[in-house]
Amino acid sequence: MDLDALRYGNFHQLGEAITDWQTMAKNLKDLATDADKNLKGKAHKANWAGKNATVTREFVDKTVHEFTDAHTQADTVAKILSDTRGELIGYRTQVNDAIERGVKKNLTVLNTGDGAFVVTRTTRPDWASDPSGEDDGTSQADANALRDEIQRILDKAAESDSTAAKVLRLIVDQAKYGFSGADYEDRDSAAKAVAEADAMAKILAKNPHDVTNTELATLNANLAKYKNDPLFAEEFAERVGPKKLLTFYAGIADPYQAGYDPDRGKQAKQLQKNLGTTIGRATLSDSDKMESWEKQMIKLGPDQLGIDDASNPTGYAVMSNLMRFGDYDDQFLNDYGDKLLAYDKQVNGEGINLWVNNANQGDLNYWGYKNDRGRDPVTGFLEALGHNPDASSQFFAQPDGTGDTVDKSSEVNEHLKYLTKERVWMSDVTLEGKDGYVAGRDSLGHALESATTGYAYDASADAIKAGGEHRTAATAGVMEEVAYLYGSEDGPKMLHDQPELADSLGKMAGAYIDDIDYSLSGVGEHQLDDGTFPAKYQGRADFTNEGAINFLSVLGQDETSHRSVTVAQHLYTLSALDAYPPTSEANINHAHDALATGAQARGILDNSRVEQAETTYKGDAEEANKSLGRSADWIKLGAGVVVGGGIAAIPLPGSTAAALVVAPLAADTVGEAVNTFIGQEIDKGVDGAENDPTVKAQMTSSDFYKKGINDLGGAYDSYIQGDSKTEHITRNQNWDQDINSAYYGTGSQENDYRGRAPYKD
What we know:
The chain is mainly alpha-helical. The protein has helices spanning 3-8, 11-45, 55-104, 125-128, 140-173, 187-204, 213-225, 230-240, 242-253, 255-258, 262-283, 288-300, 315-322, 330-347, 377-387, 389-395, 414-422, 439-453, 461-467, 473-486, 491-497, 502-511, 513-520, 545-555, 559-579, 585-617, 621-631, 672-679, 684-691, 701-720, 724-732, 735-749; strands spanning 107-113, 116-121, 642-644, 647-651, 660-664. It has a 3-stranded antiparallel beta sheet, with helices on both faces. A two-stranded antiparallel ribbon has the order 1-2. α5 crosses α6 and α6 runs parallel beside α8 (230-240). The longest helix has 50 residues, at 55-104. The radius of gyration is 33 Å and the shape is elongated. The termini are far apart.
């Protein structure tokens, strides 16, 4: 900082600029509010068709978001400028005060140019002739002290000025087009984030073997503290660099380094999560430096890192384990995944697996380690997609030119075909893990869940309740592909050979149960009932009548997927009865159609479950009955349902607390039928048998069907109960026959000729 620049700088002009920024921020806030209420509100209420229903609405949403980011950026710039101006004026006052004190001591401060200055002692002619030989008493030490004081002030002013300039550039560079959402209250908070990033980067500059547990704890604490800070993340990533990031984590995570020190292992586990989250945040920046960083990281992918740790892993092996955590840039994930799968195709299935083999002891995953050592980089990448729904829906998007629905292999995404039908998957479990379990296929299911539902696969019930509908034409496009693949002739074998996917497939089908019912509602492809089953989002999934039957018939074969789809179907039917109370002829007709179509879907699922149990257990009636008993146990799921905004979050048993079916409801508000299901008592007979590990609930196929039709009958009763007029109407319209016919006719008879046959070894 130049002395004269600080003393004589025109801070009035800077003040005027700050006023302009503050005014702009206020105006942008008004515009952002108006855009959200009016522009976005009207766009979502508009009854658009065709491309307007998807492209235009999406454009409007992005535009509204830009207004919000524009306000945030303007407000942040105004705050940083104002804070910096206040600091510089304060430093100017300190410098002038110091100079004034010097004058009183006959010390002169002179600016010598180029940012330098000198402090000299002032002399008077009469001092030389003073008989006492004394002067004013000022020493060179006083001059040096004043010089040092002024220099300290100038250094602080320079730091204030330079860090303000740096953080402002970082904020602006966060978004190449549009505006950054980075939000800071003042210069100090932004500058501190950058400084902490630099300090943490110095730890990673060390040999990982020389890093102490204390340093690791400090690193983890700061990464966790600043995990959502955009400036910290970008500065940290750039300072460390792609290769050093990979080699450092591999050195820390190497089990032969951490295995002998439990605390080291705990720190390594947290480091995996914290590094992944921080780097993910950094990739959200659009700066030229981060774009270059991302390209370097992808380029490192297939090459070994040239280190002694973790079996000298490839860049893919390390980065894929870090990206299991965090929100990543969609384009980066897609570019990374394209290159990873292209390379994987070259080496997959050729003799010894490149990733999972006895020579590779690079166990780089600390989360779920027993069943997933982290040696297969495709697994970690798919976990990343599971937490990044937009990236996932792009990665598995239908090819360009696909028609209204997917009805041939050429209309299925190549990545999806490779991962579901072509790739050779290897189990990566430890000796303590589940024998034969393939974590990669489970992660594929997670990626497809996020791609189809619009939510991270492990989103919480509260997040789903608050978030509401996230499905779009893009997510529906992926769902059509999934239904085509698993509803195909190969579907039963695919589901049987990929048991880790069963829960995810059931959750996906549950998330689209309204569109599945819509596809079942007509006569073939004609007269589909969009009155009873209106689209909950633009660009709804089209499965075709045959496609919906095939898909349900395959999912019904597995206990897990049958359970998820059944509870979603039951809940959706009940919500339809709430949505169409018997207050008008139109409502009563809609309620009838909802019950009949729900009965048809339930019949397909139940018949498929019975046939598969009989086929699987081949005459072992006791085991077949136990299997059916477990399938009938889905009713217990209702007790934990959370609803809100037209969405239900249904917990799955035997999974983590976050394993939820995100199921649509027919109405935004919950009525008596849904509330009754959610609040009902768990059947004591089933519950007791389930708690006894040796005697599972047993059920013959006859009992299984009886339970199915009774569930439908209970729903029917709830609609007409206490309303004699409605009961009279429904009896005259033969609702009982229609429901029975839909359940038994399509379910247990016609399915001998429609849908997919049970899987046979």
